[in-house]
Every structure is written in C-alpha cells, then in structure tokens.
Amino acid sequence: MLGPGVFYTYFSDGSIADSSKFGNNKFVKTYFNLEPRLSLNYLLNQENSIKASYARTTQNLHLLSNSTSGNPTDLWIPSSNNVKPEIADQFSLGYFRNFKDNLYEFSTEVYYKNMFNQIDYINGAQLNFNNKVESQLLFGQGRAYGIELFLKKKYGRFNGWVGYTLSRTERQFDGIANGTWFPAKQDITHDVSIVGIFELSKKWTFLQPGFTIQEMQLLFQAVNTLLLMKLVSYYTSHNGYRMPSYHRLDIGATWQRKKTQKFESSWTFSVYNAYDRWNAYSLTFKQDPNDNSRTQTVQTTLFGIIPSISYNFKF
Fold it and tell me: Where are the domains of the chain?
C-alpha cells in the first residue's frame, strides 16, 4: 500500500485511534504471504486411486456488501494498514474410481477449509459514500467443510454427469452473535447439478446443460416491526433465516451446419430457466399496509425464462 495520503487506525468501536501522513510512493503497509501447494496421488490399481491435497491461498481485494445478493453498490477495497489479506488453508481427501473400461468415472471427496482475517461490518454500518469505511468493519475467522459426490459417463451417444455437495460455511466474530459461530451468507447446505448430452445425429446434439438445485442459500436477518409509540425494527439472530431454495432447468440444442478442416460453424438454440422458476434474487422488508405492527417480506426476482439463439464459427 502506497501513499500519498492520511491513513487512519481505529478502535474497536470505530472511532479514530491515530492518523499518519505519508508522502508520494511511500510504503504505508506491506504484506508477504507464501502460498504453498501439495498434492498426493496414490494408485491402488488401474481403476482406483486416492488423492490428498493442501493449498494455502490469499486474497488482497475484499468485497464489502450488506445485502443478501450482489449489486452495483457493492464496495471493493484493497488490503491496507487496517485490513489484512484474507488467508485460507484447505485440506482435501478423495477416492476416485473408473469402471467399465473407463466409460464411467466416480469420485467422492471431503474437504475442510480454515479462513483467517475474514471481514464483516458492525451493526448499523454505513458502507456507501464513506471515506472512512474501514472504521465500520469487524475481523474474524471462518471455516467451511463438506463432502462432494460426482458420477460421470464419459462418452457415448448419451453422456453427462451428476454432482452433489453437502457442505457448511460458517463465520465467527467477537462483535457478532456473542462471538458464536453463525452461517455465512454464502452457505449452501445442498447443491445438486445434473447435466445430460444426447447426440441425435452428426448434425444435431441436444443438451441439458444444467438442472441445478441449491437448497438453503443466502442467509439474512429477518426483521419484525414493533409499534411502541413509534415504529421500531427488531432484528433476529445474525443470518438466522434462509432465502427460498433455488432451482432451474436449462436446455439447448446445437445444429452443426458445416465442418471442414478450415472452417466450422453451428447454430445453438437454448432456453435458460425452462420452466420459468421465479427464484429469489433478494428479499427486502416493508411495513404491512393492512397491519402497521407487522412487516412484509418482499421478494425480488431478476430473470424468468430466457430463450436465446447464437451462431458460432471458427476457422
């Protein structure tokens, strides 16, 4: 991090503890982090293997958002004298098997990730148009763990794969939920993906690019309105509620028009969200017009069914 400018440090309540002025191209704060990686593969025989890995990753650009979903008002900040790089150590162990002359591939893998220098914000934080936004932040730790199952048919007129993940992603901050672990807003308990590809002929290939189910995702705080001479919002436990489950079906077909050694072209016809599922993008709260002492939850949806046609060529 380089000057020029005035750089602040803060107390835990967000008030300014100290300030320092740095000239042009003067170093304010530097960080040095190694990112070691280790991967082991043990072949039991030609069809079975066990794999283990470890990886450390660092992140020096950080997203600040106080909404349940991404939007243009989200703020990205770099590491600084107050904000340390986020660090993650991930361990994994998996079993892999090929069978029927490599026609099918199966794998199962468990993982555990420790995360350090995680970022959240204080209650009532003002993130937008705040030139001292770092005073609104809290720093803690995180963890993620789960199991992944994957089955794939590798070739043939009909092929594809099925994947399932059971996982948890949690955070812990001294200033949130009395210092106890709580689900992160990225936490997705169940994630199912199904992909199928059918080759009708040399010219037509039908795709079911994805049937996706994500159950219990994007956590948020619910709000109840109390009528005590004036309207007062009462918030539940941090990330104590989950948005509706997300699922959709995408389908498509590719028409191979011309294929030579020098030129290849095709048309692709596809439908995103084929059964027009109105998945929740965000939830907001407003006063119930029929009962001033209650709050309504309002769901916002961005996209329903979307058909598309594309022409592809390469030479």
Answer: 5-314
